[in-house]
Amino acid sequence: MRYSGIRVIKEALSGHKGWGPLWRDPEPKPHYDFVIIGGGGHGLATAYYLAREFGESRIAVLERGWIGGGNVGRNTTIIRSNYLLDGNEPFYEFSLKLWEGLEQDFNYNAMVSQRGILNLVHTDAQRDAARRRGNAMILNGSDAELLDTEGVRKLYPFLNFDNARFPIKGGLLQRRGGTVRHDAVAWGYARGADQRGVDIIQNCEATGFKIEDGKCLGVETTRGFIGAGKVGVSVAGSSSRVMALAGMRLPMESHVLQAFVSEGLKPVLPGVITYGAGHFYCSQSDKGGLVFGGDIDGYNSYAQRGNLPVIEDVAEGGVSLIPALGRVRLLRAWGGIMDMSMDGSPIIDNTHIEGLSFNGGWCYGGFKATPAAGWCFAHLLKTGQPHETATAYRFDRFRRGYMIDEKGQGAQPNLH
Amino acid sequence: MIINHPLLGARDAQEFTYLGDASLIHRPDWQGEDPSGQFHDYLYLRDNPAGQHRELWFHEVGDRSWLVVTRNTLTHEITNVELARDVARREGRGK
Question: Which domain holds residue A38?
Fold first, then answer.
């Protein structure tokens, strides 16, 4: 079923009886050409692009719970490609371009809204760094604008410009950045994949791999053994747990990141803003709630909930940037589990086990990468070679000394 | 979270900074076999378990001691706290 304006009118006139489920609920078959473990945004996108771009059809996506119940439903919905390093920027720009055409591509309203993302700067050094990053973005075919204080004031007159310690000196604006309805991304990819014959198997947890002579032959699951030509693991947050089943130790720790939503307000915040003096980023959802977040809690966790000190810290950052927030009530807070890699950058690579590939280590930046990560992982699974924008995301970069350390902080996962 | 410091009693976790897995106590021998491989594993690879986790916390705004805290990463429940010095000595480190 294709969605269209005419379809909506037809359904309205016939009592909305024609809408069906968006995807099937199939029983697992004994063997597939490709088995993707993890029915989150990345896993579903991988299956979608394997089917649509690479012409495959015998594909299964295995999900422990229900699709979209993990980090794709827990993030702050921001998309952007404002990275500095060569290993990153072409990849994220590829992703942003895919976001721009995504809804037409999979015929689903994901509410992609390019409302602009503004990274504020508060010192001369930060302005220099922003200018450098903006130039790197432009060199990679992206867009960037450096605003001065007046430029920022025109967009966001209510910010705390004259803070004695952290006055706002300007900001780096990427107008093509913005927000996306995060659940709709999972649903749209699931529907698109299902229409192309992909089996989405929910309530099916991977419990082991069948590995013989260094080759992965399939996945043991709670719903029986499923044979596979190639297995792709895309379970960010639980990567260490799943890859441990294949005997691997990964360069990452799992940490909890909290996010927050305020009560619904009238439109106040037209785009996405990030504070340069504390860790705070904020946008306003179409329902009116301010969606914001900050740092990870900073200790290993699989609990999907955080502690109060970080809530306090984020709220302090928010109020010091937007004093008007002081009267806004916090509605909800929740936590998601992040693969915090050792250099802050992801991994999309084959493993030493033939037929077993891995996508993970996204730290807390995986949502914006969803389309490109799916595309590049599908490319890797199909061809065995990394996609041209993802050649730096290798397992062995730590051994070789080619880390992609966007923040320049070194091998410390709880800093990124 | 409250960390039950062996010398100072119950302290708020905010007074501490977190380093990571307690296996970081055991730095590889630079004169041993395959030191670059050993240091790669030591620096970058982690067990990252879901469940009991022994980890290093530094009492930064307190007595500046290093602690080995045993904590459940699924529930955040802390079951054991020791001075890292005692753990290191017990596990064969000279100092």
Answer: 23-78+84-93+100-105+182-251+343-415
Check whether residue A195 and residue A139 sit in a common domain: no
Q: How many domains does chain B have?
A: 1
Last residue of a domain, one of A289, A324, A340: A340
Record: contact B46-A301, CB cut-off 8 A: no
Paired tokens of A325? 């927030």
Question: Does residue A3 form part of some domain?
Answer: no
Work out the mean pLDDT of chain A and round it to a whole number.
96
The amino acid at A291: V
Predicted ipTM of the assembly: 0.95
Give the dihedral of Cα atoms B80, B86, B90, B91; nearest 10 deg: 80
Question: Residues 308 to 327 of A: which have CB under 8 A from any B CB?
Answer: 309
Q: Is A194 inside any structural domain?
A: yes
Single out the residue of A336, A335, A319 nearest to residue A327, CA to CA. Answer: A319
Tell me if chain A has a CB within 8 Å of the CB of B74.
yes
Q: Name the average pLDDT for chain B.
A: 95
CB A67 within 8 A of CB A22: no
**Which of A340, A365, A386 is at the close of a domain?**
A340
**Cα–Cα distance list, A141 to A50, A81, A127, A176, A306 (Å):** 26, 10, 21, 12, 38
* pLDDT tops 90 at residue B93: no
pLDDT band (50, 70, 90) for residue A193: very high
